[in-house]
Amino acid sequence: MRARDTDWDGVRLHVVTGKGGTGKTTVAAALALALAAGGRKVLLVEVEGRQGIAQVFDLPPLPYEERKIAVAPGGGDVYALAIDAEEAMLDYLEMFYGMRRAGKVLSKMGIVDFATTIAPGFRDVLVTGKTSEAVRRKGKNGRRTYDAVVLDAPPTGRIARFLNVTNEVSGLARMGPIKNHADLVNGVVASPETAVHFVTLLEEMPVQETLDGLQELRTIGLPPGGVFINMVRESLLPDSVLDAAAEGRFDPAELVLGLKAAGLTDGGSAAVSVAEALAEEIADHAHRAELESRERLALEEAARPRYELPLLSDGVDLSGLYELAESIRTQGAA
User: Fold this and answer.
1) Is the pTM of this model over 0.70?
2) Which CATH superfamily hosts domain 13-233+311-330?
3) DSSP 10
4) Looking at the record's lineage, which domain of life comes first (predicted)?
């Protein structure tokens, strides 16, 4: 199968982060569908225990196992994995010590919860380690099990700490299996095969968190990806009208004439009331458009690829998810 020409050729781990409320999980799911289109196999991973993937795809809660959840356009497959830190630790004990059965005993005693509580960095190493293993995994034929992995990661405010696993375990172990495990994870996360994408809205706080997050990644040497601008509203008014409304130059009398010409009113007092209400709505819309334009300029200064995804008027259902995936593909992100 011939590889598609996209903005992220060579990237196999797509980490998706964003401020709460920006639609991070929805965008991660749509990106997984877009990457799988045309016959590819993609794994979509979540690590926060919210069962967000199941909700987006309208499925029952996902177990701790990789299972097929969707067929992408063109016949590709999307698999999903909801990582549980306790199960990931049992995998770790099996992988490095052959102690899965003993690990289950420790789990019943609460030792696993205790370990991940006193050393939260170790929990992040476990869940990122499981994701990195999926990226590296090969089948008996020597080919990668997955063409790409999409990680629905924690919010922007803690994404750098979550991914910066080498520093996170430095206080836990300077050698031995834990250190080796962290180095393997870091070898994937910090490589050109990884891109950390940000999801934002055209609002001041999520845009600022996105800019801060990008800068933090650059500071610690992790690979920044693109910016997905979600829930973009299409303006239905010409720029001249928006400019006039934003500057207070819009005349409601013009609306009265327009309503009368369209046969919607007789031009009397009722028409004036309707026109004044519409004028207020237009002014609010103009101010929002002005704000969004300013935030777009701020994102342009980050010099990262940007992709605009439409606001879905009927909400995000399965058909809407495929619509977002198509938009992502059309814009060259997958």
Assistant:
1) yes
2) P-loop containing nucleotide triphosphate hydrolases (3.40.50.300)
3) T
4) Bacteria
